[in-house]
Design goal:
With about 140 residues, the chain is mostly beta strands. The chain has one domain: Lipocalin (Beta Barrel), CATH 2.40.128. Helices cover about 10% and strands about 45% of the residues. It contains 1 helix and 8 strands; from the N terminus they run H-E-E-E-E-E-E-E-E. It has an 8-stranded antiparallel beta barrel with strand order 1-2-3-4-5-6-7-8. Strand 6 and strand 7 form a beta hairpin. It is globular and about 40 Å long. The chain starts with a helix and ends in an 11-residue tail after the last strand.
Length: about 140
């Protein structure tokens, strides 16, 4: 009897982890990312802008020539889609480039944020992974 109970508990936890759902505000916080084209490092802060909208601001950049982008709200209009368990329908501005890219994001099991930016259709884009951080690298930049 004891073995059956332990096995049942084990199965419960396995299935719970398999079907874990994110909550909309799980995305909030600081993330370190590397530019996929230049290798430049930056930190962004994702916040709840209200009415279920999530946005992101550049908090810190390592390279001196990119400091002008600190304070830029580059990620806009993201909303959480509970069915797909991801943040979608957003627009991303790539600093120094013209135009906006469509985007969606998903929290991975290892805690990284998977970010997909694309032009037109999802196949024409780039996926990067951002690492969560606990505090701001630049306390001079105020964010919501």
């Amino acid at each position: 009897m004891s073995n059956k109970f332990c096995f049942s508990v084990f199965l419960f936890f396995c299935f719970s982890a398999l079907f874990a759902q994110n909550k909309p505000d799980d995305i909030l916080g600081y993330y370190l990312n590397e530019d996929p084209f230049s290798g430049a490092l930056s930190q962004v802060y994702i916040y709840n802008a209200g009415n279920g909208i999530y946005e992101g601001i550049v908090i810190w950049v390592r390279e001196v020539e990119r400091k002008k982008y600190e304070g830029l709200v580059f990620l806009k209009e993201m909303t959480f889609n509970e069915k797909d368990n991801e943040w979608q329908n957003g627009a991303m501005i790539y600093p120094g480039k013209n135009g906006k890219f469509k985007s969606f994001m998903r929290l991975e099991k290892d805690g990284r944020l998977r970010v997909r930016g694309y032009w037109g259709i999802s196949m024409l884009g780039k996926t990067v992974y951002w690492t969560r951080e606990t505090e701001s690298r630049n306390p001079k930049i105020m964010h919501p």
